[in-house]
Amino acid sequence: MSKPVKLIHLAAHFPGVNNTTVWSDPRAGSHIEFSSFAHFARTAERAKFDFLFLAEGLRLREQGGKIYDLDVVGRPDTFTVLAALAAVTDRLGLTGTINSTFNEPYEVARQFASLDHLSDGRAAWNVVTSWDAFTGENFRRGGFLPREERYSRAKEFLTTAHELFDSWQGDEIVADRETGVFLRDAKAGAFVHEGHQFDIHGRFNVPRSPQGRPVVFQAGDSDEGREFAASSADAIFSRYAALDTGRAFYTDVKSRLARYGRRPDQLLILPAATFVLGDTDAEAEEIAREVRRQQVSGATALRQLEWVWNRDLSGYDPDGPLPEVDPLPGEHTVARGRAQVRMYRDPLATAREWRELAAANGWSIRDLVIHTGNRQNFVGSPDTVARTIDAYVQADAADGFILVPHLTPGGLDEFADRVVPLLQERGVFRADYEGSTLRDHLGLDHPDGARGKRAAS
Ligand SMILES: Cc1cc2nc3c(=O)[nH]c(=O)nc-3n(C[C@H](O)[C@H](O)[C@H](O)COP(=O)(O)O)c2cc1C
Asked: Pfam families given for it (predicted)?
């Protein structure tokens, strides 16, 4: 029997602080003004996407003791933006990344339950533990929890939030034309949580929201992170958009579900993916090369090289050869608080390998950084991109993709106009929304028992 065709899930990531966004392009718009968010969300909804996604960053990045000012800086608050977007969209899911390390469950549960009400059941929470020790300095906690503790806090945080969501069952409020709205059950909202991280009791004051519980995403990649997702999440935001790494990640995570009595279709794998379109494959490749040069200016290349060299390289010429001095061993002082630094566990070996690569290809510092950095995931004509995305999903490299355009806010328009119709023609993407909640779009079960619409046809 052949495998049923999988329907593809698509989402749009409004980029925040990052090096994917080409802010120097004359077509690039604001990352703060509401009109940018509204344009992006409306395009995603016009294209029948499952949801819009916002990441979280709670501190201006620094490098070498100075503000890192080569990328987009500054980022408005997630809940405020999503609440405003709820008012200008009808069906699009609204996913916000909110960390469990520096917040409190009561507050976060109220915010998500409220967003779920305001949006008629479109809210989702990407629970992250945060990767930046630096961020903690902005909060009362004053630092960072060790990794194991971050995940045990995350787990208890989510359990506690679920207890709060479930403290209302939905039938406590009765609307009576004569007397107005009244509370039938005096126990509504009562909760008690006694745990290692939280010891709280009281009344939750937001009645049960349309989805019962918002959809839960997870984004950590470690063994603890994957286990957390397998036990508790509805979807994972991953970084594995390539065919081979995607399939390995997919198999690994889905195989963890049975331990928790869960089915493979109860956890969706949705990697972040970038794309470049052209009229032909060759034209798209050409545009992609140009975009990578815009993403990695000479100044950016030097700063990124510092993540490996762990020393000030500002005196080097980005169009010249790689530094002959070796990386500084020991504690990383230049890029304190930058997650990427962890990727280079052996900086001396990386430096050696890169010098050889650069010498063999005649590459400057900037060329090297461009070639070893992230390539766009899907490059080609609309037809090539539609076929490739479909092939990856059918090959179980993903259940769909969270697209990250390099232009904000207009970078999604071309995908909506040229790729989505081809996916619809192939019968692998919805022609219209069939349900109204995000759980409906994602084919997820409803916590109150209703089974989600299945994705497979
Ligand atoms: C694809 C991806 C996206 C992430 N997005 C965010 C984010 O927006 N904000 C944040 O604070 N942390 C984010 N994280 C960090 C995770 O929450 C987590 O703290 C970090 O990956 C360390 O956990 P790990 O060791 O399990 O990977 C992201 C991680 C991944 C893999």
From this structure: Bac_luciferase
